[in-house]
Design goal:
By secondary structure, this protein is mainly α. It has one domain. α1 packs antiparallel against α2 and α2 runs antiparallel to α3. The chain is elongated, with a radius of gyration of 13 Å.
């Protein structure tokens, strides 16, 4: 796959549609999936703050890593709340 291929990017921005499939795999805690809704809202807030934008391929990877950090944060939060 070539860099950026298959992405639904909105002109230099990683949008929810780009990460939604991964999010659905990462956030499977409760049947009603409130954690997935939380992740989407959090991602949209990051977008409003300009934290999902990129201008180079390297910056796109940084934004993708930001999504992974969001996943990790929510996982740790859920473990702490449930644990």
């Amino acid at each position: 796959m070539k860099p950026g291929e298959g992405m639904v990017t909105d002109g230099g921005r990683l949008v929810w549609a780009d990460v939604e499939e991964a999010a659905q795999l990462a956030f499977k805690v409760w049947a009603s999936r409130p954690e997935l809704r939380w992740a989407k809202e959090a991602w949209e807030l990051l977008g409003k703050a300009g934290m999902t934008q990129f201008s180079t391929e390297l910056r796109r990877y940084e934004v993708a890593i930001r999504f992974l950090v969001l996943c990790d944060y929510l996982s740790r939060l859920l473990l702490r709340c449930m644990g």
